[in-house]
Design brief:
mainly alpha; Rossmann fold; 3-stranded parallel beta sheet; 8 helices
Length: 189
């Protein structure tokens, strides 16, 4: 019996140097770098420390979408920005083509779909061999009042100090009071 081999890779890291969600936040949200990093740290706290039931690590991409929408991002803007800013790892394109010639190849990534579409176009990789975060931001309308609330929240978030996870933390009580207050404020369930 012969062994069938397949190749599965992530996208951001092995193929491209991008962190597309971080870059989108940086491009479209004022002080987006800090905004993204704080939301990402909050995501880590929910998943790794508080172990919130039903919460999955890596939800940062979901958490930032309403804010991107509030700042006027559309699916088309995501596609255009992503296509113009792909930074391939040197040799990644050739390696993908070589691997595709000798075995089935797949990309599995949390990256947003518009970015993956752009990457597939650039590398001539078949989109049907990709699993990614499906998103069509245009399908989710926001009222003007919701946009204003989200913009106000984004401004508040970037004014917050960066959260730090204390070594060995296993509950909210293990955080300094200032960080507990930030986590509680971000925890708008």
């Amino acid at each position: 019996m012969s062994e069938k081999r397949i190749f599965i890779t992530d996208c951001e890291g092995p193929i491209s140097k991008n962190d597309n969600a971080f870059e989108l936040a940086s491009q479209f949200i004022p002080q987006g770098e800090k905004f993204f990093k704080l939301i990402s740290k909050y995501d880590d706290i929910l998943a790794e420390v508080l172990k919130r039931p039903g919460y999955k690590a890596g939800n940062t991409l979901k958490l930032i979408l309403p804010f991107l929408k509030a700042y006027g991002v559309t699916t088309q803007k995501m596609r255009e920005y992503s296509a113009k800013n792909i930074l391939l790892v040197p040799g990644a394109d050739e390696t993908l083509q070589y691997v595709r010639n000798i075995m089935p190849a797949y990309i599995v990534s949390t990256s947003y779909e518009p970015y993956i579409h752009a990457l597939c176009s650039l590398t001539d990789f078949p989109y049907e061999n990709v699993y990614c975060t499906k998103v069509d931001i245009d399908k989710h309308p926001l009222s003007e009042s919701e946009k204003k609330i989200l913009v106000r929240l984004a401004e508040e978030i970037v004014s917050m100090p960066m959260l730090e996870i204390p070594k060995g933390a296993s509950s909210l009580n293990d955080f300094p009071e200032k960080d507990r207050k930030i986590i509680e404020r971000l925890d708008l369930r």
